Amino acid sequence: MTPHGLERIEMPEIGVLRYNITGLETNAETEPGLVNICRRLEAEPQWTGVLFDHSQSQISYTLAEFSERVDYAIKHFPRRVKIAYVFNPQTFVVSARASKLLSSSGIQAQAFPNAKDALDYLVSTENWVRRA
Length: 132
Hints:
This protein has 132 residues and is α/β, with parallel strands linked by helices. It has four helices and five strands.
């Protein structure tokens, strides 16, 4: 796997911040990044959606690290902001589990197999839940 990479794409016309993650993502990268994203969302209310694209990555967290990241997001993500995850076969379980935990805490979050569906969800005014 290639070293971790992060590309941020601002999509102000639709109010979305997109983060394309490549390579092996570890907690060492995720922890400070999540803190910065939450601070930015608090300071810049024009952002109403965040897309985390894990389609080109692998995730390497312990269960404790994963729980800490989700707990942090639950406490600090503004409730006005929707979250969408794009997964690949290796990141599906983490993306789906994070979405479920965030949704049950009152944050609109879903996991998708592609960016188009994720973006459609983020710009939609409907609050819907994907049924398996």
